[in-house]
Design goal:
Order of helices and strands: HHHEHHEEHHH
Radius of gyration: 16 Å
Strand content: 5-15%
Number of strands: 3
Structural class: mainly alpha
Strand order of the largest sheet: 1-3-2
Number of domains: 1
Oligomer: single chain
């Protein structure tokens, strides 16, 4: 069987399965720093009262991951494209505003259950930590 045929057989059946696979990929990343960024960046975007600029998102991640670093420090600062990449493109940058690449991402992460009625483990893990974003934003 050719590589293309194998790839077609493994395609997700629907958008929910696609997002579940993306979240599983994020949560299973073996590089801890990448995983931490990919876990917290969408939460900041989701929990923000208004769209965040790229600088605001980078700063929020820096404060969350490096709370002891001075505000003017470059320690832990990541280029916005690197953040988007480790988030498996769930996020996108448009005119220096960071948002979910499609409204269905927001809908997916706010749903308690997958369409078939069973919570997907990566989604449940993500969904259970959404309140954390609100707490962090309140602290910032």
């Amino acid at each position: 069987m050719g590589d293309v045929r194998r790839a077609l057989i493994c395609l997700p059946e629907d958008i929910s399965e696609t997002y579940t696979r993306i979240l599983a990929k994020i949560f299973n990343d073996r590089i801890e720093s990448r995983r931490k960024i990919a876990e917290c960046a969408p939460l900041w975007v989701f929990g923000a009262a208004r769209p965040l600029t790229s600088r605001e998102l980078v700063t929020a991640i820096q404060i969350q991951l490096y709370p002891e670093a001075p505000a003017s420090s470059d320690e832990g600062e990541y280029p916005i494209q690197a953040i988007i990449d480790v988030c498996c493109n769930l996020l996108t940058q448009e005119n220096d505003t960071i948002r979910f690449f499609h409204y269905s991402v927001h809908e997916f992460i706010t749903a308690e259950n997958s369409p078939d009625g069973s919570s997907a483990a990566p989604l449940r893990r993500f969904w259970e930590t959404i309140h954390f974003a609100h707490e962090r934003i309140a602290e910032a």
